[in-house]
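Tokens for chain A. Residues wanted.
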């Protein structure tokens, strides 16, 4: 599972700088999802990242692994990790 998570992260980190930026997140989302408004994707990213993530310039692999664990194991429907793969349809 760890290798799967790392491989997905590496696919998102297009420029291989060790951070998934909003631009990389957008690209990942729009290649998989039909989105009417890019603002939905931006809002999802902004809900996903912490203040610390923003200071670093994006999501590190370590943070992505943390978010992935929350995505799988947190039952709270308002957990930010629900946006790990993009906007949630209403």
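Reply:
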């Amino acid at each position: 599972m760890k290798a799967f998570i790392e491989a997905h992260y590496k696919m998102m980190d297009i420029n291989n700088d060790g951070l998934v930026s909003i631009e990389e997140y957008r690209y990942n989302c729009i290649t998989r999802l039909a989105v009417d408004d890019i603002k939905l994707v931006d809002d999802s990213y902004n809900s996903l990242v912490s203040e610390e993530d923003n200071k670093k310039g994006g999501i590190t692999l370590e943070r992505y692994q943390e978010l992935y664990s929350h995505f799988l194991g947190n039952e709270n429907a308002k957990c930010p990790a629900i946006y790990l793969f993009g906007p949630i349809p209403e």
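Helices lie at 2-12, 22-30, 38-48, 51-56, 61-73. The two ends are 29 Å apart (CA to CA).
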